[in-house]
Write a structure and sequence with these properties.
This protein has 4 helices and 5 strands. It is α/β, with parallel strands linked by helices. The longest helix is centred in the first third of the chain and has 13 residues.
Length: 122
């Protein structure tokens, strides 16, 4: 039986970033699910999502608010934040925040490490 590809949900209001992250994730053998807002992700549900990547600066609910909501619903779900605002990147754990333009290999390595710590990585 084929092993299920890990699902990485990406939330960002920039369609170009969503597209490039989707390509990056799929090239690394992940299934990418893209959302242009936190509300769209929450409406579709977190079921089946193995990792969440969210932009910090978005209209409506920002990435910190989304992360906090997700932690209440699914505390085990790894969440990575991406930002173009360097002053915002100082909040939270440094290993979970990536500044734009971020190093694609570093992001993929962080995702792989997070998945190794979960059931999917075993």
């Amino acid at each position: 039986m084929a092993k299920r590809k890990p699902v990485v949900a990406v939330v960002d209001d920039d369609p170009r970033l969503l597209e490039s992250l989707e390509e990056l994730l799929e090239s690394a053998d992940y299934m990418a699910r893209s959302f242009s807002s936190a509300g769209l992700l929450l409406n579709s549900g977190l079921s089946g999502v193995d990792v969440l990547i969210t932009d910090i600066g978005m209209p409506g609910m920002n990435g910190f608010e989304l992360r906090d909501l997700v932690r209440k619903a699914r505390p085990e779900l790894p969440v990575f934040l991406i930002t173009g605002g360097h002053e915002m990147a100082d909040q939270g754990r440094p290993q979970s925040i990536f500044r734009k333009p971020f190093d694609a290999e570093a992001l993929l390595a962080a995702i792989a490490k997070a998945l190794r710590g979960s059931k999917l990585g075993e």
